[in-house]
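Pair request: fold both.
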Amino acid sequence: MLPMVTGFRNYGQQTIRAVRYIGQSFMITLSHANRLPVTIQYPYEKLITSERFRGRIHFEFDKCIACEVCVRVCPIDLPVVDWQFETNIRKKRLLNYSIDFGICIFCGNCVEYCPTNCLSMTEEYELSTYDRHELNYNQIALGRLPISVIDDYTIRTISTLPQLKRSKPLIKDKD
C-alpha cells in the first residue's frame, strides 16, 4: 500500500510541476503578444543608423596630402595611394586613391588617423553587387556622398531607439 501512495504522490507532484511550466510558458507567450513587431519591410523601410556607424568611406580629393598614413594604420594595407613628387614645389601630388570594399574590414583606423580629415565614414551600408570587382572604388566613386536615409522621401525610416513613454513629467511646474 505504501508504494502505491508514494506513486500517487509523485504523480501529483509531477502534474503540478507540468501545469506550472505550462502556465509560465503561456505567460511568456502573452507578454510577447503585447509587443510591437520587430520585422521591417526592408526595401521600403530602413532603420536609421547610429551616428557612430561605420559604413562606406567618403574621400575628399582636394584635402588629401598623400601622406599615406591611412595605408600605414590599415591592418590589411588596403588603400592604394598613387602620388608623384613635384620637385619645383617640393610636395607630393596625389594622382589616384582607391579602396576595395570587398576586402575592407571597416575598422575606421584610416578615418581616425587621417591628419587632414579627408576621409569620413558614411551611413551607406548597401554595397552588395554581383561582381566583386565593382567594390573597388576610385577617388571619384569615393567622393560621391550617399543619399541620407532621413532625406530619402521614398523610404519610411524607422528609429532604432525605443520610444520611452513617461507617465509623469520629470519636472513639475509650480503655479
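--- second member of the pair ---
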Amino acid sequence: MATLSSTSALFFSFTLLYFNLISASFTPLTHYLINCGSPQPTTVDFDHRHFTGDVSSSFLSSTGTISLTDQYPSPKSSPIYHTTRVFTRPSKYKFVIKNPGAHLVRLHFRRLKSDFDFSNAKFHVLANEFVLFNSLSMEMGQDFEIVKDYVIGVDSDVLVITFVPSDKSNFGFVNAIEVISAPNDLIADVAQYVKFDKNEQIHGLLKNGFETMYRVNVGGWKVTPFNDSLWRTWVTDDEYLKSNDGLSKVHFGGRINYQDGGASREVGPDNVYNSARVIRSSGNSIPELNMTWTFPVIGGYKYLVRMHFCDIASVARGMLYFNVYVNNNLAYENLDLTEVTNRLLASPFYADFVVDGDSSGVLTLSVGPSNMSLPRAVDAILNGVEILKINNSVGSFDGEICAHAVLKSWKRGNGNVVYPMLAAVFLLLIAFVIMHRRRAGVTDSVAWGRLPMEIPEVNLKYGNQLSSNKL
C-alpha cells in the first residue's frame, strides 16, 4: 500500500501551503450580502452583518418575481429569514466581480408563514456554469433553516446566480445571498489523492467548484460566523465520532502560532485550533486504538477532505508521531507536526486529501499511534475536519445535468406550448369557415379539400423559433 512517509512530510506541507499568510483582518474586495425580498435598505443579522434589500436593486435582473414578508416572524430566527423572494420563472441575480478567482457563495432558505404552498417550491440553482442543486424541495418545518455553502471559481467579471423552477407548476425562492471573494490561500491547487492502491499528488483543484458538506470543530464547541473571519459555522464532532472510549479532549488557552506559509486564520480560526481530541499514553504502553469519524456522503463524486492539526497537547517538541487514515487507507505515516511547523508547538497545519465517494455512502477518517509513537506522550491528535464535494464532469453538484441543459429544458417546455396554441387557432379558423359557409347558403355540391393531419413544416419552424427565444 502506498504511503506518505514523514521524510516527505515537510515537502508535502509546504507544497500544499505555499501561499503567504494574509492579514488577520481580512477584507474581501467583493462582498455582497443581499436580503432577498426585503424592502428595507439594510438588515442587520445576528452576527452584526449588514444585508442590503433587493427591492428596486440592480442585482435582480428579472421581472415577475414576488416579494414576501413573514407577518409573524419567529424571534429566534435571524431577520434575513423574515423575507423571501419567490420566482415563478427563471430569474437572475448578477454580481460584478472585482477580482476573478475563488468566491464564497452562500444561499439561505427558510419557509415563511404565508398563503404560499411551499411544498411546490422545487427548483434548480445555477452559478455561472455550475449547477449548485437540482429540484430542491423545501418540504421542511417552518422554523428550519438551510444554508447551502460553496466555493466557486469565477474567471469573468460577473457572477450570475440563476433560479429555475423545475416545472411551470413549481416555483423557487431564496431568503438571502452572500457572494464574498475568498482569500488566496483558502483552497490550494494541489492535494494528495488517496485510494487503496495509490497515494499521489494531484494538481488543478482550482479549476473545480466545491460544496461544503461538513465543517467540524473536533473536541470543541460550535463556532458561529461571528467568531470566524469568513463567517463560517463549525459544528461539534460528537455526532460523527465512532467511539469515545480511550479518548480525551484538550482545550488550549495560549496563543496559536500562525506562520507565514502555513495555515492562516481564514483557513482555520483560533477556536478550531485551540481545541482537539487526543489519544494519550497513560503508562509505558501505547494504546492500540484509533480515533475514527464517519460521515455520510453521496457516491459518484470526489471529495476534498481537509484535516486540521495543531499540537496544543504535547509538553515538548518531537514527542508526537501518528498515522492518518482516509477511508481506511494509510494517507500519512509517522506524521510529526513539529517537523512541518518549523519546530513550533501550537502552530496550525492542515492536509488536503482527495478521495472517491464509493457505493458505501460513508467517508471514514481516522488518526492513531504509529510505530514511532512514544509512551507517556500524546499519540494522536485532530483539531478540525472539512469535507467538500467536488463538482462532477458536467459542472454539477447534484446529478448529471449541466447548466445549459437546465436552461434549455425550461425553454423547451415553454416552446411546447406553441403547438397546442397553433392547433387551437387552426381549429377555430376551420370552425369559423364552416359557420360562415352555412350562413351564406353554401350547397353540398361545393368540393371540400381534406383537412391537414399535421402542422405544416413552415409552422413547425416558426414554433422552433419561438421556443428558442432567450428568457
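Observation on the second member. The chain has a mean pLDDT of 83.
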